[in-house]
């Protein structure tokens, strides 16, 4: 059985092609594929590479921001449950997922049956999200992916007392003006994101293993700061952006199998 | 009896010279007089203009951010109570004070005895403070005091859905890019500050009369938006920045009078 999971985000679309609910036979990511045009394109690409056509796919499950407007889909599911399912598939021991994206942060708690038990989300405040890092990288005139390396060189992370992105921006500017090293300031910036998200995580309740996903998971500075704050090791993966699509493809498989059983 | 009230803020110092607790005989404001150097200077200026020396003053009361480090003071009092006292002196019917400063916002409820009964403050988030307006004026490349005039020309205020300063900044940029008029965007910006502060005010409880102070009180766009939100007329005064110093001078008088009575 072939199923396809597609995660239509606000800035990227991701697609996973799955065989029998367990073997990934195609994967694709498209940045800036805004709306469902990007999603259609990415689906065609993944099919073409696998030398398949739409008719070969038993079930297409959509998730993410644009999931409701994607005609080729047979069903749609929330990001949260798809994301959790994808992470559990690749890392069955995970019980807490910390997802820091470009504009929001979420913490998901999963029980031993693999069911989403509790979650909290911040999508109202730029502090503790990727946007905080963007703002700071902009002040520092530095590409965002350089923050990690530089943070590692810090001796004593600068203390940024404001949580607010706007007030922290002024703090950072004045720290640099008074001679604080860029490395220490960057480490302070990573700590700030970590401490904000740790607050969210503590309210949800941390249970090991902890997995980090979302764009900010790629930033070792924040990841390590979070490990310190929460006093637990944090797993992550370079393909964590694909977890939603993977979860959707698995759900599609489960859905289709259930239908098969009912029709027997 | 001569008393002096001095309000030592983070960016401005203000000073009021009071005769017998009721007649203002000197007033001075100094911008960017950071620390107590500015405060000493402003005190000397007010005394000199009134042809008085320090020894002529019966009591000096300090308030504001830097009040604890001002040697010439005989006593110190919190901004909140001085501010309330100053407003009540000039506007005895006031029961609610909405103070929006450059970095914070406060709402004070005063009971019929003139005592501060309840208050709430936001000094953690730039939204709903003067800083929000600064950020927006910067995007619009417009001096902050131009916002009022331009807001008045708006036909349909733009709807800014994000509360967060950082997210609202992106919204404003994209609204301007998609052809929204600057006037409507500015009116939307004023509404955003007003609705955030109105939330604070509603939690404290509004009772008329309502008085607005702080730097943002000078911005008619925000003031009128607040009137609409709260459905009450809002008083204000061009000298509202002096209220803390005035309250301090009145408290100095009360203090000194009490001491006089005790010593009689
Ligand atoms: S605290 Fe700062 S970053 Fe957070 S919502 Fe307020 S303005 Fe935005």
From TrEMBL, chains A, B:
InterPro entries: ATPase_BadF, ATPase_NBD, CoA_E_activase_dom, Dehydratase_Activator_Redct. It holds the Pfam family BcrAD_BadFG. Keywords: Iron, Iron-sulfur, Metal-binding. Residues 4-252 form the ATPase BadF/BadG/BcrA/BcrD type domain. It comes from the Bacteria. Its cofactor is [4Fe-4S] cluster. This is 2-hydroxyglutaryl-CoA dehydratase.
């Amino acid at each position: 059985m072939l199923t396809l999971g597609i995660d239509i985000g606000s800035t990227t679309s991701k697609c996973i092609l799955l065989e029998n609910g367990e073997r990934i036979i195609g994967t694709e990511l498209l940045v800036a594929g805004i709306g469902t045009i990007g999603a259609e394109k990415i689906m065609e690409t993944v099919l073409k590479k696998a030398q398949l056509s739409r008719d070969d796919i038993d079930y297409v499950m959509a998730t993410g921001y644009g999931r409701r407007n994607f005609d080729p889909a047979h069903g749609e599911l929330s990001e949260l449950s798809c994301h959790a399912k994808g992470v559990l598939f690749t890392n069955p021991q995970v019980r807490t997922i910390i997802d820091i994206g470009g504009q929001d942060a979420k913490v998901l708690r999963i029980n031993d049956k693999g069911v989403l038990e509790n979650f909290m989300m911040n999508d109202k405040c730029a502090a503790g999200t990727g946007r905080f890092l963007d703002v700071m990288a902009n002040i520092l005139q530095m590409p965002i992916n350089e923050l990690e390396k530089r943070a590692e060189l810090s001796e004593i992370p600068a203390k940024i007392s404001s949580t607010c992105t706007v007030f922290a921006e002024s703090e950072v500017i004045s720290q640099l003006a008074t001679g604080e090293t860029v490395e220490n300031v960057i480490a302070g910036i990573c700590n700030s994101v970590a401490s904000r998200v740790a607050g969210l995580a503590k309210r949800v309740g941390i249970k090991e293993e902890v997995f980090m996903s979302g764009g900010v998971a790629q930033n070792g500075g924040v990841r390590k700061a979070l490990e310190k704050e929460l006093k637990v090791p944090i797993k992550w993966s370079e393909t964590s952006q694909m977890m939603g699509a993977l979860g959707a493809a698995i759900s599609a498989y489960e859905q289709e199998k259930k239908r098969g059983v009912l029709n027997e």
